[in-house]
Amino acid sequence: MGHSRFALPSRSAKWSRLQPTCHSKLINYQTTGPADSCWLEPVMTDSVLQATLNVTEASQRDWDVLVIGAGPSGAIAARQCAQGGGKVLLVNDQKLPRDKVCGCCLNGAALEALNRIGLNKLVSDCHAPILENFVLASGQQQVALPLGAGVSLSRQRLDLELTQAAIDAGAQFLDETRATLHASEKQHCSVMLNHSQSEYATRARITIIASGLGRRVFSNRLADERRTNRNSRIGAGAVLSEVRSDFKPKTIYMACHRSGYVGCVRLEDGRLDLAAALDANAVKQAGGIGPLASIITNSAGLPASDAVAAANWRGTAKLTQSRATVYGDRLFVVGDAAGYVEPFTGEGMAWAIASGIAVAPLALQSLKVGTTETGPTWAKSRTRLLGGRMWKCRLISQLLRRPKLVKAAAWGLSHAPGLSRPFIRSLNRPFPELRS
User: Fold this and answer.
1) Phi and psi of 30, rounded to 5°?
2) β-pair type (226-228, 198-209)
């Protein structure tokens, strides 16, 4: 079946010199500031997203599907299940919007996946900048490569809009609540909702765990079989509001070093998103995430090293994780919670979106037949959907640990940029396994 082209933001939007007036929500901007202010693109903003019910009301209902985590995978799974007629509760432990450690890039595969479920307009409505170039930098050697497709969009905005889409489809949303899976019975899962130091019990016929990397959602009575690669790097992220103009919009910058790599991209509001994969021992030796990130960007010839060092960095668990199984009695595990490797230019977001779409039909089917058959089907489907792409990123992550190879590749690609086209095309290739 053919697919219409996804909508992208207009290239004609004018840029204004703006200054942020608020950092705790989606940012509002006003035309003021000194001549050296960063250049920011005006965006439509919203206030904090309100829950559709309170925890008492949530605990008094039985749910068809309860989704833990309102990231891209969880929000999309909730939307698709609600569209399919399920009585859905989406639970998140924080208010939206909020920042997340993330590269904030949607590649062509992610955009096409959103298009398949009718959410392509969401991206254009957010004024997400089109990504045109990828700059690979190592040891002062740099090369700029055309990306072909993709946008940058903050997790503040994306997660809020996807959750609103789930609400519009009929899902209920409960925020500032920690959900913990306590038991799986023959007909339902028992879930505890912790809100304001009080605990409430609710039940769901199917639970979808989309709680992200490192988040524990199982009680002591249920085993969390997550496995972590001991050589894995840790993730880290920060967002800069005041940014030198050296960082051009519509461009992903990636600084590579033996101790890790740091990616930089301008967001829809002009801020600079920083995302890194770092060796934990190197972080300790450098005196923290910021100092190491500054060393890496400076060694690659990227600007703003002082601002990078002083940024408010947040770390994550080790990036490379896996589970022995991604399903259980009346439950499915999706997104980063199901397994993760160091991603590359929007792949992590594409995996999350695709898995949220793919799990929903199986969750709805499980309402009728249980997970005896649909659980193994999900495990096989997820492997077909993501296995090859994760393998490719695992290979890339190993290559990025060898600065001499990266430097040589940058030099070679600067003389023959066409060599990168097959690789870029493979990143943007749509997921043929997704149902329309």
Assistant:
1) -130, 155
2) unpaired
pTM higher than 0.90 for the full model? no
Q: What are phi and psi of 83, to 5 degrees?
A: -60, -30
d(CA 392, CA 201): 42
Strand partners, 173: 90
The DSSP H or E segment spanning 363 is helix 347-369
pLDDT higher than 80, residue 114? yes
Structural domains of the chain sorted by starting position, each given as residue range(s) with its CATH number in brackets: 49-103+154-228+321-398 (3.50.50.60), 105-153+233-318+402-435 (3.30.9.10)
The per-residue b/e assignment along 197-233, b for 16 or more CB within 10 angstroms, e otherwise, is eeebebbbbbbbbbbbbbeebbeeebeeebeeeeebb
Report how far residue 91's alpha carbon sits from residue 200's, in angstroms, rounded to the nearest whole number.
Answer: 13
Expressed in angstroms, the distance from the first to the final Cα of the chain is: 8
Of residues 371 and 358, more confidently modeled? 358
Of residues 142 and 19, more confidently modeled: 142
- The 10 Å CB-count burial string (b at 16+, else e) for 253-265 is bbbbbbbbbbbbb
* Contact by Cβ (8 Å): 240, 271: yes
Q: What are the angstrom distances between the C-alpha of 360 and each of 164, 190, 250? A: 17, 20, 33
More confident residue, 213 or 259: 259
Strands (E), 189-313: 189-195, 198-209, 226-228, 234-240, 251-257, 260-266, 272-278
CA 124: distance to chain centroid? 18
DSSP 118-178: T-HHHHHHTTPPBP-EEEEEETTEEEEEE--S-EE--HHHHHHHHHHHHHHTT-EEE-S-E
Phi, psi of 111 (to 5 degrees): -65, -40
How many Cβ atoms are within 10 Å of 21's Cβ, its own excluded? 10
- What crossing angle do the helices spanning 403-415 and 371-399 adopt, rounded to 10°? 80
Cβ proximity of 151 and 129 under 8 Å: yes
Q: Is the pLDDT of residue 112 over 90?
A: yes
Is the peptide bond prior to 417 cis by the omega test (within 30 degrees of 0)? no
What is the predicted pLDDT for the residue at 193?
97
What values do phi and psi take at 53, rounded to 5? -160, 165
Burial call 67-101: b when 16+ CB within 10 Å, e when fewer:
bbbbbbbbbbbbbbbbbbebbbbbbbbeebbbbbb
